[in-house]
Write a structure and sequence with these properties.
A hairpin with a 6-residue loop joins strand 5 and strand 6. The strands form two sheets. This protein has an eight-stranded antiparallel β-barrel with strand order 1-2-3-4-7-8-9-10. A two-stranded antiparallel ribbon has the order 5-6. 0% of the residues lie in helices and 62% in strands. It contains no helices and ten strands. The chain has a domain of 97 residues: Lipocalin (Beta Barrel). It is elongated and about 80 Å long.
Length: 149
């Protein structure tokens, strides 16, 4: 889920896969390119981006979770005249205020590479990709529309 989930913090229902659309724009022009990413569980998934008729494929891996879970112990107490004792505590989940982060490494068929630093929260996010020539691209991440039934 915030990443969710770069991508990574997104909640899964059972073994479901969550799909994302990527919008990519180079910093030196206004041309728009597209891509896709999936969250398949365990903080990783496949990613694909097409730029100038060249498709880069690879995977992304969560580097910073968007949430964390811990156990908090309450305390110790006793009842009337010491006849009852108790302990308190429970599990809590907290959002990371910076959201989740992920790194993606992609490769085209000709061997050229694309490296991306992504941030996300609650299923949406952004980031920056850089190709082997040093060209930088801004990236938007959003949930893919649900398939028609």
């Amino acid at each position: 889920m915030r990443t969710a989930a770069l991508l990574a913090a997104l909640a899964l229902a059972g073994c479901a896969t969550t799909n994302f659309e990527l919008t990519v724009m180079p910093r030196d022009s206004g041309k728009i390119y597209t891509g896709t990413a999936q969250f398949i569980g365990a903080g990783e998934g496949p990613i694909s981006i097409t730029i100038e008729d060249k498709t880069y494929n690879g995977s992304w891996v969560e580097t910073q979770p968007s949430t964390t879970t811990g156990y908090v112990s309450g305390g110790f107490g006793y009842g009337y005249r010491g006849r009852a004792y108790g302990f308190g505590g429970g599990f809590i989940t907290m959002d990371n205020p910076e959201g989740g982060a992920a790194k993606a490494l992609l490769r085209a068929a000709d061997g050229s590479g694309l490296r991306c630093e992504l941030q996300s929260g609650y299923g949406r996010g952004g980031g920056v990709c850089r190709d082997d020539r040093g060209r930088e691209y801004d990236v938007q991440i959003r949930p893919a529309p649900a398939p028609a039934k």
